[in-house]
Amino acid sequence: DTEVTQTPKHLVMGMTNKKSLKCEQHMGHRAMYWYKQKAKKPPELMFVYSYEKLSINESVPSRFSPECPNSSLLNLHLHALQPEDSALYLCASSQVAGVSTDTQYFGPGTRLTVL
Amino acid sequence: AQKITQTQPGMFVQEKEAVTLDCTYDTSDQSYGLFWYKQPSSGEMIFLIYQGSYDEQNATEGRYSLNFQKARKSANLVISASQLGDSAMYFCAMRDIKAAGNKLTFGGGTRVLVKP
User: Fold this and answer.
1) What's the pLDDT tens digit per position in A8-30?
2) Is residue A57 within 8 Å of residue A45, measured between CB atoms?
């Protein structure tokens, strides 16, 4: 079963709000990812967690704060976002990070709108 | 730096016909992996097929096959017997063995619309 789940599906928030996106996988994968995707563009990598440790931060603004409580869960905490942060946020997981054959499996995404 | 190019921003295909989506890549590395993903309007990125740089045979998965031409650095996706549910955005992606954290480089995507 290659299922990655994400909640919520849709989120509308004001610029002063604090919210969190959640991602969960039960495939025993040890690498998890957050991507941001603007309309009609490919996904852009934000963060990579490998064995529950942050291994890559693609120079993401601090108003985005990732958290990996355990090997199955990945959160993205949002605070003081800007309207330009409105996008589809995709979570992905893979068995391990650092192997060229490793396949990333994506969740359905959270559509975020910042007012 | 790696680069993936998908030259077809959009295309129409008749239901039940085959369609080829182009993907060319640029890398100086010998070991890399090539992936195709499908993204319907719902947003989920669905993994379709994988080709390794050392694989001697073209990858196939059901109605999907990958036409891998290493010397030309191309990895075209062929969808046979198109169905209405194949209407989606398709992304080609690549990762090389040296890419930190399994980072994928994506192409710009090709939007496919299957006509009945």
Assistant:
1) 999 999 999 999 999 999 999 99
2) no
